[in-house]
Write a structure and sequence with these properties.
binds adenosine monophosphate; eight-stranded mixed sheet; 8 strands; globular; binds manganese (II) ion; alpha/beta
Length: about 280
């Protein structure tokens, strides 16, 4: 039995509207079973699942935070920005999502073409299946490659077919960091730099990214993530203190079959860190 179920929260999760496998209602049910009291749905570049998730949280008596995870480019590198408490009706957000959806569809189509031409895989067919989603991602292609027996698991599919220097790779051209930050700001979201410990960046580069994030109105770093090493947690906590940023916490849950990031994180944080929770209005 959890002794403090009221302190379990999750501000980073995915449904099948992007590259998660559960419906929003299934996700909420699973979070409730785990004792999560406050949940954000943060699908990649889409708010399509928020209505269903909100209704399910209401029915379950859980606090709901409408969210999104935006892809963006900072100095040539892909980074992710989580927006919490977003107004999904905002016109600027809507046009941003429409633009990114078109880019995602074009990228997957091009990846399909390359897999077809360079590796003689049924890439066009797989890409057209994946393209039906509200936010099609490479993970959709990876799962289809596994289903059809072209890779043992999704990691192998990325390594062999989808990552840089493989037959199917197409570089992503995400909106610029400043543009994504402006969309979050204009749509009323609290901006969170997603999984900063996972970027391939030197400590100097990560410090510069964090500085840019703080300067453009960023509020929090994801400082308590499933799978974070104690060393990573220390590095990110130090960045929070240095730039006066709050701490967000989440699982980045996609799939119940992946055992290492179950839903829900404790609010308990390293000394000197303030949780992002007080900034959030749930709706
Ligand atoms: P995209 O936004 O289309 O580039 O797809 C990226 C998504 O694929 C991420 O959000 C992850 O969920 C997933 N992903 C990226 N790299 C890997 C990997 N090596 N293994 C498994 N999933 C991955
Ligand atoms: Mn994902
Ligand atoms: Mn991410
Ligand atoms: Mn994510």
């Amino acid at each position: 039995m959890d002794s403090h179920p009221e302190t379990l929260v999750d501000f980073h999760t995915h449904s099948h509207f992007s590259d998660g496998v559960l419906t929003p209602a299934q996700l909420v049910a699973r979070a409730q079973q785990r004792g999560v009291s406050m949940l954000a749905l943060t699908d990649h570049d889409t708010t399509a699942g928020l209505t269903e998730a909100r209704a399910a949280c209401e029915a379950a008596g859980m606090r709901f935070v409408p969210g999104i995870e935006l892809s963006a480019t900072w100095r040539g590198q892909t980074i992710h920005l989580v927006g919490l408490g977003i107004d999904e009706q905002h016109a600027g957000l809507q046009s941003h999502m429409a633009k990114v959806l078109a880019q995602r569809q074009a990228r997957l189509r091009e990846m399909g073409e390359r897999l077809e031409k360079r590796a003689r895989l049924p890439g066009r067919e797989l890409a057209s299946i994946a393209a039906g989603c509200a936010a099609p991602t490479r993970l959709h292609l990876a799962r289809l490659l596994v289903e059809r027996g072209f890779a043992r698991d999704t990691q192998a599919a990325f390594d062999r077919w989808l990552n840089r220097n493989t037959a199917g790779h197409v570089p992503a051209e995400w909106p610029a960091f400043d543009e994504a930050m402006a969309v979050l700001r204009d749509s009323g979201a609290v901006a969170v730099l997603a999984h900063p410990h996972r970027y391939r960046a030197s400590s100097g580069q990560l410090r510069e990214l964090t500085a840019a994030f703080a300067q453009t109105g960023g509020a929090a770093l994801e400082a308590s993530m499933a799978g974070m090493s104690p060393n990573d947690a220390d590095r990110i906590a130090a960045l929070c203190r240095r730039f006066n940023l709050r701490a967000s916490m989440g699982s980045d849950f996609h799939d119940p079959a992946v055992p290492w990031n179950p839903l829900g994180r404790w609010l308990k944080l390293a000394p000197g860190l303030e949780p992002v929770t007080q900034l959030l209005k749930s709706a």
